[in-house]
Design brief:
By secondary structure, the chain is of the alpha+beta class. Helix content is 40%, strand content 31%. The protein has a single domain, classed as Chalcone isomerase (3-Layer(bba) Sandwich), CATH 3.50.70. It is globular.
Length: 194
């Protein structure tokens, strides 16, 4: 095998792997994305399935400017980020909002719950205004430094951006905190398998 042939094999394998992305529970997640024109490209840090009891609820993917393997590193990282949630079942927006609130309160101390009360209320307002989320819907919770938290559902922006990177970090604790909504999902989001 010549060096040129080996190089072509390696290059094709790399290119094919990059193009294919990651597929979990039938949901394809891109390996790299860009969430706004002036933000750096984000890489898929990890992805997994949120399971409640035995029911698969959604596939989550965490996108960061660079890969991180510990929750503390992710939470300390500044700049653009994205949590993608691909719904695997129908939920009322109220159910989804209640689960977010429960996870937020379980993973943030009372002073932080108080500090971000208005921002959480804004997010819950955006989510409940949807009425319901359906199987196949893609929810993106994106942090863009110039804007704040932007919520998009199937690519369409919902509500107004919610300022404060501290709030976005507190929100990420729903999945990455000490009492995450799903400990297997937490490990998967940190690239540690499911």
């Amino acid at each position: 095998m010549t060096a040129t042939f080996r190089f072509l094999c390696v290059f094709c394998t790399f290119a094919l792997g990059t193009a294919l992305g990651t597929e979990i529970a039938g949901v394809k997640l891109d390996d790299k994305i860009q969430i706004a024109p002036n933000t750096p490209e984000l890489v898929l840090n990890g992805a997994g399935v949120r399971t409640r009891i035995i029911v698969k609820v959604y596939v989550a993917g965490l996108y960061l400017p660079e890969k991180k393997g510990a929750a503390t590193e992710v939470l300390a990282l500044s700049g653009a980020k994205r949590m993608s949630l691909a719904m695997l079942r129908d939920l009322t927006a109220q159910q989804f909002a209640e689960a977010l609130t429960e996870g937020f309160n379980a993973n943030n101390a009372p002073p932080d719950q108080e500090r971000y009360k208005a921002q959480l209320a804004d997010l819950i307002g955006i989510m409940t205004s949807l009425g319901q989320v359906k199987k196949g819907d893609m929810i993106a919770l994106e942090y863009i430094p110039e804007l704040g938290l932007r919520v998009r559902v199937n690519g369409a922006e919902q509500g107004k951006p919610i300022a404060d990177e501290g709030f976005y970090r507190a929100l990420l604790k729903v999945w990455l905190g000490d009492k995450p909504v799903d400990s297997d999902l937490k490990r998967a989001l940190l690239g540690q398998g499911s």
